[in-house]
Amino acid sequence: MELFSPWKQDETIALAISGGMDSMVLYHVLRTTHAYASGQLILLHVNHGQRTASIEEAEYIMKMAQQDGHICEMTTLDIPSDAFSQERAREARYQFFDTMMKKHGASILLTAHHLDDQYETILHSLLSGRHLPGAMGIPSDRDMVDYRVVRPLIGATREEIAAYARHHGVVHFEDETNSGTDYTRNYIRHRLMPSIKESAHLQEEHLIRLRDDMADIDGILKAEAETFLEGRSKTLPRSAFNAQKHIIRFYIMQAWLKADGVELRRRYIEEIMAVIASDTANAAFEAGKTSIVISYDQITRKQGKDENVDVLRIERDGSYVFNGYRITTRLAAHQYPLEVRTKEAGDRMKIPGTGTKKLSRIFIDGKVPRDEREKMPVILDSDHQIIALGEIYNIMGNKEKNSRLLIEKEFTDEPEK
Prior knowledge:
Elements: E1 13-16, H1 21-31, E2 41-47, H2 53-68, E3 71-76, H3 86-104, E4 108-110, H4 115-127, E5 141-143, E6 148-150, H5 158-168, H6 184-198, H7 206-229, E7 235-237, H8 238-242, H9 246-258, H10 266-277, E8 282-287, E9 290-295, E10 298-303, E11 311-314, E12 318-322, E13 325-329, E14 338-341, E15 348-351, E16 355-358, H11 359-365, H12 370-373, E17 378-380, E18 386-389, E19 393-394, E20 405-409
Enzyme class: ligase
Protein name: tRNA(Ile)-lysidine synthase
Pfam families: ATP_bind_3, TilS_C
């Protein structure tokens, strides 16, 4: 079987070996026809701890490695079943890989992704709305901080790998969870791909052409974004930004934030862009230590705690965003200005029918997370009296009855599920 093998003969390489057919076939090829194509081979096995059979599988892999004279490192993930997710498992695996690669001085980590994985990944990106030009599919190799991930089987189909396993009698284990359709990737694998392969009018190979075309488009869009950002640093003109096509705006925002080392999910960037395109006069979004501040015709990127915008002044009716909360005001002229800020030591609020109460006690009674307390809007009237606290208290009335001062938690950078 042909391998994509861009490593040197004296390099120490590691193989992420799950025990499934793909990685066991790759191990067999490395042990036979490619036995002298590299230096030392280290096996890395991760037991996800979700199946009873995985214990015996791990024992088999360890015994196999010892018989073949290879070092084998193993770990078992400590993720409860009710909290298990593919994303959490992947993060945990790569933490283990990072540690082991450094421990053994390995420069190449091999994974057994193949051509059908490539097709499924491209479809998943397209159909889940997470696609971006230039970011589709699985790269044949990728640089990490201290090593390089290489996928030797990326040009081989699942059929070819299965045929190799049968011909050479490669022992492997089936993970029964792979046959279900609970996970999106499994649904694509078992429900969509077979129909595509069976159709005389559909060729999955075109997905690779789509990926390559999108990579070319990615280069064009990046160049457009660079042209717009030329001569502009921390501040962007809002009207000129909004005049660009939607996809160009996305690339501009992505590149502009990356200048501060900020990389956000597409959903959060889209939320920011939606506010920039709206008639909202003032808004602020948090992205780690960076704030994106929208103020009339300017979009400003500010970094560091000293630069974060903690106060918003509202002088007329309108819709405003503050730390992920939308504040809508429809007040009489004499009720302005309003001051919106975050909590301060000693803050107290008058609760109708109760008396005054410290904000710190309100947070505790409401079991508000500590990080949420730091960004929740505290609204003061023109007499500097607190009249509202986030969605918790609003002297002017609740959401259903109040239309003069409405506060809603709307924007968030929570991870996508």
